[in-house]
Amino acid sequence: MRKLIILGLMAATVIPGAAMAQSRAEVRDSARDLRQEQRELRDAQRYGNRHDVREERRDVRDARQELREDWRDYRKSHRDVYRGGNWRAPFRYNRWEVGSRLRPNYYNSRYYISDPYRYRLPRAGANQQWVRHYNDVLLVNVRTGRVVEVHRGFFW
Fold first, then answer.
1. What is the pLDDT of residue 84?
2. Could you give the C-alpha distances from 142 to 44, 64, 133, 139, in angstroms and in order?
3. What is the pLDDT of residues 102-145, one digit of tens each?
4. CA nearest neighbour of 137 among 118, 109, 111
5. Domain limit, last residue, from 54, 79, 104
6. How would you list the strands of the sheet with 128-133, edge to edge?
7. 23 contacts 73 by C-beta, under 8 angstroms
8. Strand pairing partners for 130?
9. Which residues constitute the domain of residue 67?
10. Beta-sheet pairing, 147-151 with 136-141
């Protein structure tokens, strides 16, 4: 009986890890599929006709949708990572749009997301930084203050 209980406890600790690995692998595979579809679209634009380009654009759109769905599933299954926590700012909430310009006190180093890979955010480009604004995440060009990308309701 004791061995059965120990075996059950071991299985209970291994199964969540396997589910996480499967979900992470799904997101990685979807991202790889998207890159492949984008390569095929570039080739169709170079060498194909309009019909080929239209089909490849549709395939890229479908691959992007699949990647979004896998990422949402990953996010739902790992709610603890995206928990909002006790986050306060010395300014009120603003609903920023892409192209908006922020003042430096909205995107200084205090609000940077130090580990964007933990949240599965794409790599920030040169002179760009992921910034937390209440439960939203903004990709900001730190030289100009322009918002490049917005993810609303990112944290729970």
1. 63
2. 36, 28, 15, 9
3. 888 888 888 888 888 888 888 888 999 999 888 888 999 999 99
4. 111
5. 79
6. 128-133, 136-141, 147-151
7. yes
8. 139
9. 16-79
10. antiparallel
Question: What Å distances lie between residue 113 and 4, 51, 120, 154, 156, CA to CA?
Answer: 44, 43, 12, 12, 16
C-alpha triplet 153, 115, 87: angle, nearest 5°: 45
Count how many Cα atoms sit within 13 Å of the Cα of residue 11 in the half-sphere of its side chain: 6
Supply the mean pLDDT for the chain: 80
Please report whether residue 26 resides in a domain: yes
Q: Give me 32's structure tokens.
A: 């790889």
**How does residue 17 score in pLDDT terms, banded at 50, 70 and 90?**
very low
Of the residues 36, 55, 79, the one at which a domain ends = 79
pLDDT, mean of residues 63-73: 80
**pLDDT of the residue at 136:** 87
